[in-house]
Each structure stands twice: as C-alpha cells, then as structure tokens.
C-alpha cells in the first residue's frame, strides 16, 4: 500500500455528517461487467437515456458507473434505496437533491478523469471537487497567459521547467473546484479567481474578482487520489474536517 492509498480508508458504518464534516470518496471507473450491469439497473429513466446516447462503449460504461456510484453513495447518507435518489439541476448543470430529500441539506459534487472519480459530500455548505490526470499540456505558459492572473503567471514563469505542468494543473483544478461549488463551471473567467499553484505550497484561494474578503469565506484543499492525478476540494466556510473514503464493490 502506498502512502497515498493509506489516506483513503474503508468507510465507517456510521456516515453521519455534522455541519463541519466533509467526506470525499475515491472510486475506480474500471468496474467488472457484473457491477456495471448492477449500477445500470439503479439509474433513472433519463439517466438511462443519457447513457444510451454515448457513441463509444467506454464512455457509456463510465457514465453508468459514475452516476450509479453517486446514487449508491448518497443513498448511504439518506438511508434509502439508490433508485429513490432524485436529482434536479442548476442553470449550469450542477446536480442537487430534489424531492423530499432536498430538505436533508446534503450537498455534493463529483469529478472524474481517466479511471478515477471523486465524490465530495457535506451538509449546509456549497462544495466543489475537481480531479485531473497529470498529462503533458503543450504551451503551458501560453495557455496560462490567457486564463490566469498576472500574479499567477509570474509564479508559473518563475518555477523550474519540471514543475510547470503540475503547477498549471494545480491552478486549474483549484479554480474549477471553486467554480463548481458556486454552480458556474467555466462560465466565469478563470483569471478572476486567484489561487496558489506552486507544488508543495498549501492550496488557498487568494482573491475572487480582487476581493480577498470573499475568498476568505472558502476553504481550499489539495487532494491526492493517485500518484498521477491532481485534485482540489472547495468548501464554503472554514473549520471543516475532511475524511477520505475508498469505495469498492463491497460497499454497495
């Protein structure tokens, strides 16, 4: 077991969430055919239709697994059958609980890249999570000049060449996690959200549209789901306690 794997523990039997608790689940999108079939059976009719629209079988399976696991994980907190979980969607597509379970104030977000999916769950707080597979991004500084702030670009240019790729993805996931938390996705210009990005530097929101007070309302955290991945968690408020769980087929 790697040091990273030791951070992701088997879940507790009692998954009760206090107002300060944040749970992040790590799951693999590489599941057996049997489990894919099981997860497909718990999807809603509209999710089944969405799954059928994927041209490639690999993409269809990953959608089924991602949504099926989301239903399974949320059902553990709501203490209901996964098929009973109901969703509604914000103007930018962010999912939320609908129906009678909306009153639970359970908030969640999910992100996937390559073979990893992350699910973040809390109560009474806006939350966003983003994960990216570490890959070679061509023209990192050129892209950053277009999407990052002047201060972020200065930090990126000053880093040694081997650190630039990770620094770029650090910034990207941290900005994306915040934008997903507020339900805007990439609708807001990325250079309006300033973050730390240097490898080894604590994840922080430095300012939002130049407003440091607004950024102080948020907690930003770096996550390490696997050696070849970069991830970030954005949670409204401070003083939260984050626990990381590993999902596997025996969980549901």
3D architecture notes:
- Helix 2 (33-41) crosses helix 4 and helix 3 (45-52) packs antiparallel against helix 4.
- The model has no long low-confidence stretch (mean pLDDT 92).
- Helices cover 34% and strands 25% of the residues.
- It has eight helices and eleven strands.
- The chain is α+β, with helices and mostly antiparallel strands and 252 residues long.
Please provide a brief summary of the model.
By secondary structure, this protein is α+β, with helices and mostly antiparallel strands.
Question: For the residues shown, what is the average pLDDT?
Answer: 92
How many β-strands, per DSSP? 11
- Largest β sheet strand count, sense and barrel closure: 4 strands, mixed
User: Separation of termini?
Assistant: 23 Å
Relative strand content: 25-35%
Query: What shape does the CA trace take?
Result: globular
Number of helices: 8
Q: Strand pairing plus helix content: what structural class?
A: alpha+beta
H and E order: HEHHHEEEEEHHHEEHEEE
- The strands making up the biggest β-sheet line up spatially as 4-5-1-11
CA-based gyration radius = 18 Å
List low-confidence stretches: none
Query: Helix content range of the residues, please?
Result: 25-40%
